[in-house]
Amino acid sequence: MNYTLHQLEIFKKVSDLKSVTKASEELFLTQPAVSIQLKKFQEQFSIPLFEIIGRRLFITEFGEEIALAAEKILEEVQSINYKSLTYQNQVAGKLKIAIVSTAKYVMPYLLSEFMSENVGVDLTMDVTNKATVIKSLEDNEVDFAMVSTIPKKLAIERVELMKNKLFLIGGKQHPSFTENITGKQFEESSLIFREKGSATRLAMENYISKEKLITSKKMELTSNEAVKQAVIAGLGISVMPLIGIKTSLFSSELQIIPAKGLPIETTWNLIWLKSKNLSNVAKAFIKHIHLNKRKIISENFGWFEDY
What pTM did the predictor assign? Predict the structure, then answer.
Protein backbone atom coordinates (compact mmCIF):
# COMPACT_ATOMS: atom_id res chain seq x y z
CA MET A 1 0.00 0.00 0.00
CA ASN A 2 1.19 3.48 -0.80
CA TYR A 3 -1.44 5.89 0.52
CA THR A 4 -0.44 9.38 1.64
CA LEU A 5 -1.18 11.46 4.73
CA HIS A 6 -3.14 13.78 2.44
CA GLN A 7 -5.38 10.89 1.37
CA LEU A 8 -5.88 9.84 4.99
CA GLU A 9 -6.91 13.39 5.86
CA ILE A 10 -9.36 13.55 2.95
CA PHE A 11 -10.93 10.17 3.73
CA LYS A 12 -11.28 11.06 7.43
CA LYS A 13 -13.04 14.33 6.54
CA VAL A 14 -15.36 12.60 4.05
CA SER A 15 -16.10 9.95 6.66
CA ASP A 16 -16.96 12.60 9.27
CA LEU A 17 -19.16 14.69 6.99
CA LYS A 18 -20.61 11.92 4.80
CA SER A 19 -20.20 14.27 1.87
CA VAL A 20 -17.49 14.93 -0.73
CA THR A 21 -18.85 18.45 -1.29
CA LYS A 22 -18.75 19.42 2.39
CA ALA A 23 -15.33 17.83 2.82
CA SER A 24 -13.93 19.82 -0.10
CA GLU A 25 -15.29 23.05 1.41
CA GLU A 26 -13.73 22.39 4.82
CA LEU A 27 -10.40 21.33 3.31
CA PHE A 28 -10.38 24.30 0.88
CA LEU A 29 -10.05 21.94 -2.09
CA THR A 30 -12.08 21.56 -5.25
CA GLN A 31 -14.64 18.77 -5.32
CA PRO A 32 -12.88 16.98 -8.24
CA ALA A 33 -9.56 17.05 -6.31
CA VAL A 34 -11.21 15.38 -3.29
CA SER A 35 -12.95 12.82 -5.50
CA ILE A 36 -9.69 11.89 -7.28
CA GLN A 37 -7.77 11.39 -4.02
CA LEU A 38 -10.67 9.46 -2.51
CA LYS A 39 -10.72 7.15 -5.57
CA LYS A 40 -6.94 6.59 -5.35
CA PHE A 41 -7.25 5.79 -1.65
CA GLN A 42 -10.07 3.29 -2.29
CA GLU A 43 -8.05 1.55 -5.02
CA GLN A 44 -5.56 0.39 -2.40
CA PHE A 45 -8.21 -1.71 -0.63
CA SER A 46 -10.08 -4.71 -1.98
CA ILE A 47 -12.98 -4.02 0.41
CA PRO A 48 -15.26 -0.97 -0.16
CA LEU A 49 -14.70 1.97 2.20
CA PHE A 50 -17.96 3.64 1.24
CA GLU A 51 -21.01 3.18 -0.94
CA ILE A 52 -23.37 5.51 -2.78
CA ILE A 53 -27.07 4.79 -2.36
CA GLY A 54 -29.27 7.15 -4.30
CA ARG A 55 -27.29 10.36 -4.04
CA ARG A 56 -26.14 9.76 -0.45
CA LEU A 57 -22.70 8.58 0.66
CA PHE A 58 -22.48 5.92 3.36
CA ILE A 59 -19.29 4.71 5.07
CA THR A 60 -19.05 0.91 5.31
CA GLU A 61 -18.18 -0.91 8.52
CA PHE A 62 -14.67 -1.47 7.13
CA GLY A 63 -14.51 2.20 6.18
CA GLU A 64 -15.37 3.21 9.74
CA GLU A 65 -12.43 1.12 11.01
CA ILE A 66 -10.07 2.74 8.50
CA ALA A 67 -11.37 6.22 9.43
CA LEU A 68 -10.65 5.50 13.09
CA ALA A 69 -7.11 4.32 12.24
CA ALA A 70 -6.61 7.41 10.04
CA GLU A 71 -7.61 9.66 12.93
CA LYS A 72 -5.00 8.05 15.19
CA ILE A 73 -2.29 8.28 12.53
CA LEU A 74 -3.02 11.97 11.85
CA GLU A 75 -3.01 12.75 15.58
CA GLU A 76 0.40 11.06 15.96
CA VAL A 77 1.80 13.02 13.00
CA GLN A 78 0.50 16.24 14.55
CA SER A 79 2.07 15.26 17.86
CA ILE A 80 5.44 14.74 16.12
CA ASN A 81 5.18 18.21 14.59
CA TYR A 82 4.41 19.75 17.98
CA LYS A 83 7.34 17.95 19.63
CA SER A 84 9.69 19.06 16.88
CA LEU A 85 8.72 22.70 17.38
CA THR A 86 8.93 22.36 21.17
CA TYR A 87 12.53 21.13 20.88
CA GLN A 88 13.22 24.30 18.92
CA ASN A 89 11.96 26.30 21.93
CA GLN A 90 8.74 27.26 20.17
CA VAL A 91 5.27 27.18 21.71
CA ALA A 92 3.40 24.38 19.95
CA GLY A 93 0.19 22.46 20.48
CA LYS A 94 -3.55 22.89 20.52
CA LEU A 95 -5.51 25.76 22.02
CA LYS A 96 -9.23 25.14 22.52
CA ILE A 97 -11.57 27.98 23.40
CA ALA A 98 -15.36 28.24 23.71
CA ILE A 99 -16.91 31.69 23.59
CA VAL A 100 -20.40 33.15 23.77
CA SER A 101 -21.56 34.58 20.46
CA THR A 102 -20.99 38.26 21.24
CA ALA A 103 -17.42 37.51 22.34
CA LYS A 104 -16.58 36.83 18.67
CA TYR A 105 -16.19 40.60 18.32
CA VAL A 106 -13.44 40.63 20.99
CA MET A 107 -11.59 37.31 21.06
CA PRO A 108 -10.02 37.53 17.56
CA TYR A 109 -8.17 40.69 18.64
CA LEU A 110 -6.88 38.91 21.76
CA LEU A 111 -5.70 35.97 19.65
CA SER A 112 -4.26 37.71 16.59
CA GLU A 113 -0.76 38.61 17.77
CA PHE A 114 -0.45 35.42 19.85
CA MET A 115 -1.21 33.22 16.84
CA SER A 116 1.14 35.22 14.61
CA GLU A 117 4.01 34.85 17.07
CA ASN A 118 3.39 31.14 17.68
CA VAL A 119 2.96 29.43 14.31
CA GLY A 120 3.04 26.01 15.98
CA VAL A 121 -0.25 26.62 17.78
CA ASP A 122 -3.44 25.20 16.27
CA LEU A 123 -6.64 26.93 17.38
CA THR A 124 -10.13 25.51 17.77
CA MET A 125 -12.76 28.07 18.77
CA ASP A 126 -16.42 27.21 19.30
CA VAL A 127 -18.85 30.14 19.13
CA THR A 128 -22.16 29.30 20.78
CA ASN A 129 -24.52 30.32 23.61
CA LYS A 130 -23.62 30.61 27.28
CA ALA A 131 -25.15 27.30 28.37
CA THR A 132 -23.14 25.32 25.80
CA VAL A 133 -19.94 27.27 26.56
CA ILE A 134 -20.18 26.48 30.29
CA LYS A 135 -20.91 22.81 29.60
CA SER A 136 -17.83 22.58 27.34
CA LEU A 137 -15.71 24.05 30.13
CA GLU A 138 -17.25 21.81 32.80
CA ASP A 139 -16.71 18.70 30.65
CA ASN A 140 -13.04 19.67 30.15
CA GLU A 141 -13.49 19.87 26.38
CA VAL A 142 -11.78 23.28 26.15
CA ASP A 143 -8.90 25.12 27.80
CA PHE A 144 -10.69 28.46 28.17
CA ALA A 145 -14.08 30.08 27.92
CA MET A 146 -14.95 33.73 27.38
CA VAL A 147 -18.12 34.84 29.15
CA SER A 148 -19.63 37.96 30.69
CA THR A 149 -21.41 36.09 33.49
CA ILE A 150 -19.29 33.98 35.86
CA PRO A 151 -20.71 30.47 36.45
CA LYS A 152 -21.45 30.13 40.17
CA LYS A 153 -21.21 26.35 40.39
CA LEU A 154 -17.69 25.98 38.96
CA ALA A 155 -14.38 26.64 40.70
CA ILE A 156 -12.60 28.80 38.14
CA GLU A 157 -9.67 31.11 37.62
CA ARG A 158 -10.15 34.21 35.48
CA VAL A 159 -8.63 37.23 33.82
CA GLU A 160 -10.88 40.30 33.57
CA LEU A 161 -10.80 41.71 30.05
CA MET A 162 -13.12 44.63 29.32
CA LYS A 163 -16.57 46.04 29.99
CA ASN A 164 -19.64 44.65 28.25
CA LYS A 165 -22.51 47.13 27.86
CA LEU A 166 -26.06 46.28 26.78
CA PHE A 167 -28.49 48.91 25.47
CA LEU A 168 -32.05 48.99 24.20
CA ILE A 169 -31.76 49.16 20.42
CA GLY A 170 -34.17 50.16 17.65
CA GLY A 171 -33.93 50.54 13.87
CA LYS A 172 -33.66 53.88 12.09
CA GLN A 173 -37.41 53.78 11.36
CA HIS A 174 -38.20 53.54 15.09
CA PRO A 175 -39.27 56.86 16.70
CA SER A 176 -36.35 58.68 18.32
CA PHE A 177 -36.52 59.44 22.04
CA THR A 178 -34.89 62.34 23.87
CA GLU A 179 -36.21 60.97 27.16
CA ASN A 180 -36.51 57.43 28.51
CA ILE A 181 -38.99 55.17 26.78
CA THR A 182 -42.15 54.81 28.89
CA GLY A 183 -43.58 51.56 30.16
CA LYS A 184 -46.58 51.92 27.82
CA GLN A 185 -44.33 52.52 24.80
CA PHE A 186 -42.26 49.48 25.77
CA GLU A 187 -45.37 47.33 26.09
CA GLU A 188 -46.58 48.39 22.64
CA SER A 189 -43.25 47.48 21.03
CA SER A 190 -42.41 44.11 19.48
CA LEU A 191 -39.51 42.58 21.42
CA ILE A 192 -36.84 40.39 19.84
CA PHE A 193 -35.17 37.87 22.17
CA ARG A 194 -32.22 35.53 21.84
CA GLU A 195 -32.85 31.83 22.43
CA LYS A 196 -32.97 30.29 25.92
CA GLY A 197 -29.46 29.55 27.25
CA SER A 198 -28.10 32.84 25.89
CA ALA A 199 -26.54 35.32 28.33
CA THR A 200 -28.07 38.18 26.32
CA ARG A 201 -31.52 36.58 26.69
CA LEU A 202 -30.99 36.23 30.46
CA ALA A 203 -29.86 39.86 30.78
CA MET A 204 -32.91 41.05 28.84
CA GLU A 205 -35.33 38.97 30.93
CA ASN A 206 -33.71 40.16 34.19
CA TYR A 207 -33.98 43.77 33.02
CA ILE A 208 -37.69 43.41 32.16
CA SER A 209 -38.36 41.75 35.51
CA LYS A 210 -36.38 44.31 37.52
CA GLU A 211 -38.09 47.29 35.86
CA LYS A 212 -41.52 45.55 36.11
CA LEU A 213 -42.14 46.05 32.40
CA ILE A 214 -45.02 44.42 30.56
CA THR A 215 -44.41 42.70 27.24
CA SER A 216 -47.04 41.70 24.73
CA LYS A 217 -45.47 40.93 21.34
CA LYS A 218 -42.20 39.05 21.02
CA MET A 219 -40.14 36.81 18.76
CA GLU A 220 -37.09 34.60 19.37
CA LEU A 221 -33.98 34.30 17.19
CA THR A 222 -30.91 32.12 17.65
CA SER A 223 -28.01 34.54 17.11
CA ASN A 224 -27.13 38.16 17.87
CA GLU A 225 -26.50 38.76 14.18
CA ALA A 226 -30.03 37.58 13.38
CA VAL A 227 -31.45 39.82 16.12
CA LYS A 228 -29.46 42.79 14.81
CA GLN A 229 -30.72 42.29 11.24
CA ALA A 230 -34.30 41.93 12.48
CA VAL A 231 -34.04 45.20 14.42
CA ILE A 232 -32.50 46.95 11.39
CA ALA A 233 -35.42 45.70 9.27
CA GLY A 234 -37.90 47.20 11.73
CA LEU A 235 -39.29 43.96 13.16
CA GLY A 236 -38.92 45.20 16.72
CA ILE A 237 -36.56 46.36 19.46
CA SER A 238 -34.12 44.42 21.61
CA VAL A 239 -31.55 44.67 24.38
CA MET A 240 -28.21 44.06 22.68
CA PRO A 241 -24.50 44.19 23.54
CA LEU A 242 -22.85 47.36 22.25
CA ILE A 243 -19.82 45.38 21.04
CA GLY A 244 -21.71 43.78 18.15
CA ILE A 245 -23.46 46.83 16.69
CA LYS A 246 -20.65 49.37 16.18
CA THR A 247 -20.89 49.55 12.37
CA SER A 248 -24.69 49.71 12.41
CA LEU A 249 -24.67 52.51 14.98
CA PHE A 250 -22.06 54.51 13.06
CA SER A 251 -24.07 54.12 9.83
CA SER A 252 -27.33 55.06 11.65
CA GLU A 253 -28.98 51.76 10.75
CA LEU A 254 -29.53 51.33 14.48
CA GLN A 255 -30.17 53.77 17.30
CA ILE A 256 -29.90 53.53 21.06
CA ILE A 257 -33.27 54.03 22.77
CA PRO A 258 -32.80 55.67 26.19
CA ALA A 259 -34.35 53.56 28.92
CA LYS A 260 -34.40 53.57 32.70
CA GLY A 261 -31.96 51.02 34.12
CA LEU A 262 -29.83 50.82 31.00
CA PRO A 263 -27.13 50.24 29.97
CA ILE A 264 -26.53 46.97 31.78
CA GLU A 265 -22.80 46.68 32.50
CA THR A 266 -20.96 43.40 32.96
CA THR A 267 -17.34 42.38 32.36
CA TRP A 268 -15.88 40.03 29.79
CA ASN A 269 -13.74 37.36 31.44
CA LEU A 270 -11.37 34.70 30.19
CA ILE A 271 -12.02 31.76 32.52
CA TRP A 272 -10.67 28.25 33.06
CA LEU A 273 -11.21 25.46 35.58
CA LYS A 274 -9.14 25.87 38.74
CA SER A 275 -8.38 22.13 38.63
CA LYS A 276 -7.28 22.28 34.96
CA ASN A 277 -3.77 21.03 34.23
CA LEU A 278 -2.88 23.77 31.77
CA SER A 279 -0.70 22.96 28.77
CA ASN A 280 2.31 25.07 27.85
CA VAL A 281 0.23 26.63 25.08
CA ALA A 282 -2.53 27.59 27.53
CA LYS A 283 0.01 29.06 29.97
CA ALA A 284 1.61 31.05 27.16
CA PHE A 285 -1.79 32.44 26.15
CA ILE A 286 -2.57 33.56 29.70
CA LYS A 287 0.80 35.31 29.85
CA HIS A 288 0.09 36.98 26.52
CA ILE A 289 -3.28 38.25 27.77
CA HIS A 290 -1.81 39.65 30.99
CA LEU A 291 0.94 41.48 29.09
CA ASN A 292 -1.11 42.81 26.17
CA LYS A 293 -4.79 43.15 27.12
CA ARG A 294 -4.65 46.87 27.95
CA LYS A 295 -2.96 47.72 24.67
CA ILE A 296 -5.31 45.52 22.63
CA ILE A 297 -8.43 46.95 24.29
CA SER A 298 -7.20 50.53 24.01
CA GLU A 299 -6.31 50.22 20.31
CA ASN A 300 -9.44 48.36 19.21
CA PHE A 301 -12.20 49.30 21.63
CA GLY A 302 -11.49 52.90 22.59
CA TRP A 303 -14.80 53.88 20.95
CA PHE A 304 -16.59 52.06 23.78
CA GLU A 305 -15.95 55.00 26.10
CA ASP A 306 -18.27 57.25 24.04
CA TYR A 307 -21.32 55.27 25.14
Answer: 0.74
